[in-house]
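Subject: Nicotinate-nucleotide pyrophosphorylase [carboxylating] structure
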Amino acid sequence: MYTHEIESFLEEDLGYNDISCKLVPDHNVEAIIFTKEDCTLAGTDVALSFFDYFGIEYSTDYSNGDRLSKGDVIFTLKGSSLLILRTERLVLNFLGHLCGIATNTNKCVDIVRKYSDRTKIACTRKTTPGLRKYEKMAVIAGGGDPHRFNLTDSIMIKDNHVKMMGVEAAIKSAKEKAGFTQKMEVEVESSADALVAARTGADIIMLDNMEPEEVVKTVDFLRRSSIPEHIIIEVSGGINMDNLEGYAKTGVDIISMGSLIHRSQWIDVSLEIVKVQE
């Protein structure tokens, strides 16, 4: 995390006058941050950025991606009580939010692994403004794929592009403008458009808003149509933990889920001062 990012978050939380911390004298203290529920850990790098900024000593036995049990101590902290309390809420907010995403992602990965070791779970660009890189790193901690971090990572021809130009024309136009390193993904809603995309040069075909039964038929149709083997088949649209199992059985390469982030629930983490030095 860059210094200007840390200071921006601090400005939001501290405002112009931290009244609460002036109520008690500053002491050297030891504190712990622990989880109140089972989770997959994420956000430790963010927490360390705040600790380093304030000069707070820390130790931990865990890394992002580790599975924790209720009561596990994530960090032991030593330093000024004033500084520890000032950073408390920001660190807990990041840990709670990011651990929630990692935990949700890990549960989804476990569901898919029952049916395929090859299929990957990915998130989308449905992220909280200003927090995308942190949320996507939490997905990685949970065993998922970050997909595109931003629009420059690769080309994606979506439904509105297709409505204006058609699949074939949109792909040809994009190929004329794309750099040689950029892969091209095309979002389709029918097996016919999927085949056009495959034959016109798409690297990734996203089957959007299809039921699992239709996905199976489309994947079979594409394979029987002898599309290039390098083409990746992705499915997306309205997929969540409740219906994930059906899509895990379809044999696609990627299942992308906005719900990994926007439907995750925060993990309850807490900070407690355990020793005060006079």
